[in-house]
């Protein structure tokens, strides 16, 4: 449990609760859920530019990271087809993957196929089911993909001024504006309460909120004097109580709850909002192909990690289809912007390629 880990190091309950958010980030779990301590360690075990446990902003927004990878690949001779949806994996008579078929009917031939789509999309939608072992298909169907995350992107015309650290008269960013700001994290009991509400089908009445203002460090993201605020919030169930849909009314009602919470910490925040984009779990699934809206392609619980990710006997990036590999967050070691699954999968694929 994360509480046991944090109790060994810290005394302050607000500090412990704030750090405990990394134990439940993206997970339909409470800090009191057994196994969530691993998720906490998962988020601090990496490093950035030699600093262990550090995180960073991507200059130009997260899309700039994808563009950098694309440029590096193109420099090595890769051909990139953007905005081209894949219909299915192309199999040869011997059952090996030999490319993909696009939705417009175009066949792209390849000796190897690596998929960074989720295991659900890769094996349940893009691969002929008759070519897969039934127990493997059942395992993929049973992966826990519940997600508590609703992401809200906000445009504001001034920096939020927090009661705990008010803005200066000149309105210049202060140190805390350059960091990750955690709200409704005064105690771990608040996180557990928010989780409990969601398990009953109700969006949290006092959500866990992680607030970042990337435009403070990267002014090019917003017009002069304005800012973009990224809100990572939970807990919101994928399916609301009574089977109610996440329609515009439900979306806006939850967003209003989030904004009311921020207003209590930073009066004037709601008046500064000039636009917002609300992405509930179904939206994250529909737009980005995240199963259940899960940012990790599947829960990071101990029964779905290491040798069991995405399925027992298939944690080494190879799949039941020869020459088809899984290289996304649904593969070992799981989610996070670290590239470990892709790097490991590439090494396995290259090893196989040499023997073709």
Draw up the topology in text.
Blueprint (H helix, E strand, L loop, with lengths): L1 H8 L3 H12 L11 H7 L4 E2 L2 E2 L10 H13 L10 E6 L5 E6 L4 E3 L3 E3 L3 H7 L8 H9 L6 E8 L24 E3 L4 H12 L8 E5 L14 E8 L13 H18 L3 H4 E7 L1 H8 L35 E3 L13 H14 L3
Parallel strand pairs: 6-12
Antiparallel strand pairs: 1-2, 3-4, 4-5, 7-10, 7-11, 8-9, 9-10
Helix pairs in contact: 1-2, 2-3
In short:
The chain is an alpha+beta fold.
Descriptive report:
The protein is an alpha+beta fold and 356 residues long. It folds into two domains: 2-56 and 146-288, no CATH class; 85-144 and 294-354, FAD/NAD(P)-binding domain. The protein contains eleven helices and twelve strands. The chain has helices at 2-9, 13-24, 36-42, 63-75, 119-125, 134-142, 188-199, 248-265, 269-272, 281-288, 340-353; strands at residues 47-48, 51-52, 86-91, 97-102, 107-109, 113-115, 149-156, 181-183, 208-212, 227-234, 273-279, 324-326. The strands form four sheets. The chain has a five-stranded antiparallel beta sheet with strand order 8-9-10-7-11. The chain is globular, with a radius of gyration of 22 Å. InterPro entries: FAD/NAD-bd_sf. This is PYRD2 protein. It comes from Thalassarche chlororhynchos (Atlantic yellow-nosed albatross). Belongs to the carotenoid/retinoid oxidoreductase family.
Poorly predicted residue ranges = none
Total count of strands: 12
Shape: globular
Classify the oligomer.
Answer: single chain
The radius of gyration computed from the alpha-carbon positions, rounded to a whole number of angstroms, is 22 Å
pLDDT averaged over residues: 93
Number of structural domains: 2
**Structural class designation:** alpha+beta
Helix and strand sequence: HHHEEHEEEEHHEEHEEHHEHEH
- Give the end-to-end Cα distance, rounded to a whole number of Å: 46 Å
Give me the side-by-side strand order of the main sheet.
Answer: 8-9-10-7-11
Percent helix range = 25-40%
Portion in beta strands: 15-25%
Number of helices: 11
Report the biggest beta sheet as strand number plus sense, adding barrel if it closes.
Answer: 5 strands, antiparallel
Protein name: PYRD2 protein
Family: Belongs to the carotenoid/retinoid oxidoreductase family.
InterPro entries: FAD/NAD-bd_sf
């Amino acid at each position: 449990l994360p509480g046991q880990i944090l109790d060994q190091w810290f005394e302050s309950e607000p500090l412990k609760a704030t750090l405990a958010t990394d134990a439940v980030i993206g997970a339909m779990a409470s800090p009191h859920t057994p196994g969530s301590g691993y998720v906490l360690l998962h988020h601090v075990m990496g490093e950035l530019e030699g600093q262990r446990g550090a995180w960073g902003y991507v200059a130009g927004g997260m899309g700039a990271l994808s563009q950098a990878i694309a440029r590096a690949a193109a420099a090595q001779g890769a051909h990139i087809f953007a905005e081209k949806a894949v219909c299915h994996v192309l199999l040869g008579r011997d059952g090996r993957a030999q490319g993909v078929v696009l939705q417009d009917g175009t066949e792209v031939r390849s000796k190897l196929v690596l998929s960074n789509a989720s295991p659900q999309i890769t094996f349940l939608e893009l691969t002929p089911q008759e070519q897969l072992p039934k127990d493997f298909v059942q395992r993929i169907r049973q992966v826990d993909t519940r997600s508590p995350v609703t992401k809200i992107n906000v445009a504001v015309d001034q920096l939020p001024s927090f009661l705990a650290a008010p803005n200066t008269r000149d309105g210049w960013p202060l140190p805390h504006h350059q960091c990750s700001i955690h709200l409704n994290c005064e105690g771990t009991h608040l996180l557990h309460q928010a989780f409990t509400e969601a398990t009953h089908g109700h969006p949290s009445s006092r959500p866990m909120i992680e607030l970042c203002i990337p435009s403070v460090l990267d002014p090019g993201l917003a017009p002069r004097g304005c800012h973009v605020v990224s809100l990572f919030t939970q807990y919101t169930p994928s399916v609301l109580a009574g089977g109610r849909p996440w329609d515009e009314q439900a979306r806006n009602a939850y967003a209003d709850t989030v904004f009311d919470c921020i207003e209590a910490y930073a009066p004037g925040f709601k008046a500064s909002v000039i636009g917002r984009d609300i992405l509930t779990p179904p939206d994250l699934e529909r737009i980005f192909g995240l199963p259940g809206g899960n940012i990790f392609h599947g829960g990071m619980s101990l029964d779905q990690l290491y040798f069991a990710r995405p399925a027992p006997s298939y944690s080494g990036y190879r799949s039941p289809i020869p020459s088809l590999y899984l290289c996304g967050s649904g593969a070992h070691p799981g989610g996070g912007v670290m590239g470990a699954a892709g790097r490991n999968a590439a090494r396995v694929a290259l090893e196989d390629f040499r023997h073709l």
